[in-house]
Amino acid sequence: MLDTPGMRELQLTDDASGIADVFEDILALSAQCRFSDCQHESEPGCAVRDAIEGGQIDPARLLRRRKLLAEDAFKSASLVERQTKDRAFGKMVHRLMKEAKSRQQGGSGNTGGRQKIRNSHSPCCARSPATNRRIEAAIARSCAILR
After folding, report:
1. SS3 of residue 147 by DSSP
2. What would be the CATH architecture of the domain defined by 15-76?
3. Which of 4, 19, 131, 136 is the most buried (most CB within 10 A)?
4. Cβ contacts of 119-123, under 8 Å, gap ≥ 24
5. Looking at the predicted structure, is the pLDDT value of residue 108 above 60?
6. Each residue of 28-71: pLDDT tens digit?
7. What per-residue confidence (pLDDT) applies to 145?
8. d(Cα 113, Cα 80) in Å, to the nearest integer?
């Protein structure tokens, strides 16, 4: 326990090299992945996932690495970049909430025919279920980073 009067938080410096040193085993395995941009989630030919399934790496270790990398990326972004991302995220959430509300109203019969026609041509209906799942996953990751 540290008593640091006047200091709100402590942060690491030179995170990228420290993370690379601590998770050297995962970094070496990721070089063997089939795809160079592998996220180690569900891609075919992922050496890291194979090592986790084989019991060579603890799955929690990969999660800790992801969390530290996300924290490092957040910290290294400038204030303007963070504000831009926050604004874009807020607009996306607002748009999705508005679309969900309009779909609920369109299905209840309270709004009349014009609303139902607009809903049938809304961008949400034009997206595939896979795209909607990716958007929901992005929102979940963003919320996890902001915690």
Report:
1. coil
2. Orthogonal Bundle (1.10)
3. 19
4. 123/99
5. no
6. 999 999 998 888 888 899 999 999 999 999 999 999 999 988 88
7. 66
8. 43
